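In the current project phase, the collection of sequences with tokenised folds has grown. A representative record is quoted in full directly below:
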Amino acid sequence: MPQKLDRDERRRQVSEAAWRVLVRDGLEALSVRNVAAEAGLPQSSLRYTFPTVASVRERAVALVLERLQERVAAVDVDGASWSREVLAQLLPLDAERRTEMEVYLALGTAAMTDPALRDGHRASQDAIRDVCARALAALIGRAPSGVEVRELHALVDGLALHVVRQDPDADAGWALDVLDTHLERVAG
């Protein structure tokens, strides 16, 4: 069992190193060599777990989804407050979520031409759509329509994009104000 934990920890460390390379240097710099250097590992050691840059990319996308699911599962309030809190977890309102969003956007763009990334990107989109549907259901007390879910999903995605593209030191509180206004309108 400890060997598996070490391998899982190594996979997480390598994925986080890949995120740092991707955010700092761009998608074209995401190579096994650069990720190994960022993680402080010999390239030969990294190739054992991640033999190709595609495998590094796939794991980086999977980690974004895992982190999102962990944050959503950790929200411990009920009703409308739960809806707002889980939706806020989809917005890049801190450095960690900002990094995740930048990785998500870069690898999501790459998924358009890289079939190996499509399933991971699709799973992330499905997870976000599911969070939106669950948040709406908790807010309005019924199953939301497909249009209602798509509207909220588009709003959250748009807010996230705008926040991540603004200066990192700029106040992003406006995004929560927009989200709150929308949720009040839906609940009312």
Q: What stands out?
A: The chain has one domain: 2-187. The two ends are 51 Å apart (CA to CA). The longest helix spans residues 115-140.
